[in-house]
Amino acid sequence: MSTRTDTRSDTPVAYGFEGNLRRYLRGLGGLAVFLLVWWVGAMMTRPSYLVPSPLDSVRAFVDLFATTTAIVVPVSGSSLVLPTGLAHLAETLFHYVPGLLLGASCGIGLGLLMGWNGALDDWLRPLVRVLRPIPPLAWIVFAIVWFGIHHTGAAFIVFIGAFWINFYAAYGGVEGVSSELTDAASMLGVERDLSMLKLVALPSAAPQVLTGFRTSIGRCWMIVVGAELFGAPGVGYEIINASNNLAMATSVAYMFLISLAFLCMDVGFRLLEGRVLAWR
C-alpha cells in the first residue's frame, strides 16, 4: 500500500501565488526607485518649490481634505459641500462622465454600423478621415464660443476624445469578424443584417469594443485636464491655478487625485469586463 501523497493539484495554486507575489514585489521595487529618484531630484533643485519632495506632496494631498468647499450641481442647481479635493474632483466628473458616456455610445454605435454596412462606410469614410486627425483640444475655441466656459464646453471636448477611440475600436472589431462565423449563422437561419449584427458581429467584437472603452477611460482623463485649462471648473483648473501661485506641491497633490480616480474606475471596469466576457 502506497503512502505517497499526490500534491500535483496544489502546484498550480502555489506557482500562481508565487508568481503574483513576485510581480507585486517588482512593482513595489519600481515604485521605490521612482520615489528615490524623485526625492533626490527634489533635494538637488533650487529653489526647492520648483520640484516638491514626495513628503511635501503627501502633506499637500492631506490638506486637500482638511477644508471644505461648496459647489453647484449642474442641472439641479443645488449646492453641495464636500472636502476641497473631492469637491473639485466632483466638478471634473460633472463633465467627464457625460462626455465619456455620450462619446463612447455614439462612437461605438457609428463604428458598428460603418464596419458592418459597406455602403454607409463608403459614404462616411472620407469625412472620418478628414475629422479624425484633429486633436480634441483643438476644438476648445469652438467649445468656448458654442457652450461657454463651463461644464458643457468641457464635456464636449471629452465627447470628441471618447468618440474616436471607441469608434475605431468598434469599427475594427466588426471588420475582424470571421466569415466562418457569418456563414455558420446563415446556415442556422440568421439572414437579416440587423440580426447578424446583433447575434454574431457584436458578440465577436465585444472584447475589442470593451478594450476601446477601457482605453478611453484613461485617455479622457488626460483630455479633461487639458479642457479645464481654459477655465472650466475642476481638478485641471486647480492644477494650473496652483502652479500659477507657485504651489507646486498642491499641483502634484491634484495629480495624485486624478491617478486615484482613474485607478478606481479602471479596476471597476476590469471587474465588469470580466463578468461580461465570462462566456469566452
Outline the secondary-structure elements:
Blueprint: H1 11-44, H2 54-63, E1 68-72, E2 79-83, H3 84-116, H4 118-131, H5 140-147, H6 151-175, H7 179-187, H8 193-227, H9 235-244, H10 248-276
Verbal overview:
The chain has 280 residues and is mainly α. The chain folds into two domains: 8-59; 66-276, MetI-like fold. It has ten helices and two strands; from the N terminus they run ααββαααααααα. It has helices at residues 11-44, 54-63, 84-116, 118-131, 140-147, 151-175, 179-187, 193-227, 235-244, 248-276; strands at residues 68-72, 79-83. It has a two-stranded antiparallel ribbon with strand order 1-2. β1 and β2 (79-83) form a beta hairpin. α8 (193-227) runs antiparallel to α10 (248-276). The longest helix has 35 residues, at 193-227. The protein is globular. The model is unreliable at 1-9 (pLDDT under 50).
